[in-house]
Amino acid sequence: MTAVPLAFGNLVAEHYEDSFHEENPIIDQLREKMEIHENPTYTKEYLEPEKRSIANAMQVYFKDGSSSDKIEINYPVGHRRRREEGIPLLEDKFKANLATRFPAKRCKEIFALCKDQAKLEATPVNEFMEMLVI
Question: What sign has the CA pseudo-torsion 81, 82, 87, 92?
Fold first, then answer.
């Protein structure tokens, strides 16, 4: 989960496939260079029900002795404390995934229905499922 974004700039579902790793030896090459250290505070706060922090930090050291700044994230996008930031990203991801399967018009219809909770709840299941037939 760290080597792939360092090498490719993002992390998507396909990156979890064995075939992706087999085709990209740089992933294991980067992993071999990594040192992992537990921060006891991260573990403690992950287990606290009121926090459920999913903290992590990273710093890159280069061959010339220089290093990047240490970056620490206590609550990643997607955590309940960052819901406001995460929802637009989740919507973009949903649209992108719809676009891999449906024509643009149907993507817009499905997305619009899913954005309107009252309308979605009032939609008969068979009608919603018909929208998802390819």
Answer: negative
> Could you tell me which residues come within 8 angstroms of residue 71 by beta carbon, excluding any fewer than 6 positions away?
57, 58, 59
What pTM was computed for the model?
A: 0.70
pLDDT digits (tens, 9 = 90+) for 75-131: 999 899 999 999 999 999 999 999 999 999 999 999 999 999 999 999 999 999 999
Cα 81 from Cα 52, distance rounded (Å): 10
β-bridge mates for residue 72, sequence order: 57
What is the C-alpha separation between 23 and 75, in angstroms, rounded? Answer: 32
- Distance between CA atoms of residues 91 and 58, nearest Å: 28
CATH architecture type of domain 3-76: 2-Layer Sandwich (3.30)
**Ranges of CATH 3.30.1330.120 domains, the chain:** 3-76
